[in-house]
User: Fold this.
Amino acid sequence: MTESLIPLGLILAGLLALGAGGELLVRGASKLAAAARITPLVVGLTVVAFGTSSPELAVSLDASLAGQTDIAVGNVVGSNIMNILFILGISALVSPLTVSSQLIRLDVPLMIGASVLMLVLSSDGNIGRGDGGLLFGILVCYIVWTVWQSRRETSEARRQFEQEYAVPERVSRRQVVRQIGLVLAGLVLLTLGAECLVDGATAIARLLGMSELLIGLTIVALGTSLPEVAASVLATWRGERDIAVGNVIGSNLFNILCVLGLSAAVSPQGIAVSAAALRFDIPVMIAVATVCLPIFFTGQRIARWEGGLFLGYYVAYTVYLVLSETDPAMSRTLGKVMWTAVLPLTAMTLLLSLCGALRHRRA
Assistant:
């Protein structure tokens, strides 16, 4: 009994530290960005995306350096699947979500492309240091492009940004030092929380005879996605629905390009990708990313029934993962039902919705 309580305590302590660390990091970085008068677009990409994905970065870096690459890969893939199916599903059930045209034109296609690139780079069973550098380089190019785009924002957008963040005319040295202290404290908590979570999850996996990949896809992914859950649901509740969607898409991009890229770049042997992840989990991540395009395009919104569909698929995916290691026969039955009935019906429904949206636009 004691053997199982200690890992559970580590997981709980890790989750609490990750949540607190992410909050401190976002708060401090947001104030520093506002004081520097960085535009809203750059703040959304760098501060929000990095802040909400910082637990994933801390956990994957720690796991890759410790040689627990299944947890590093499972964390990224599981978080991306959860971000879309669970977080957008819950948020859309709270209130239908608005999708900006920029997400449809650029960010969602880029997310799909990054997901496919991850599969291509890992097709040989390993994401090497050069592959990690490539992924991170793409992120740098994306940030540079975003900074260039931000210069085209109107003065009205800048004025709204200054009002939202209450940007003072002059920032004192004490205020800057305080915000830097918050950022450093957040980074320390994230590091400690990552170590606790990885150690606890690994111990639980060994006690239950479960694979580290499964733990990374479920427990670790859920824990590190808590900032995205809080940010998107709260934004939806406050009526800022475009922020809820943008946070999820931006975090998914950051997870692949930065979290996975840096983890592979710092690991001496790169990151090994298991055959199970290549055969099932990464293709599921690509499919989930791809299905966003027709859903977002239909009226540029995510309706409640589509949110319920997302949530239902996440439950089915999680159940399948657990059954695949505890009851393989039942998991095969569930897989057949999904492939022969549920998925074709969903594809037909989405196709009809897309055709209706196209006819509406032409009219």
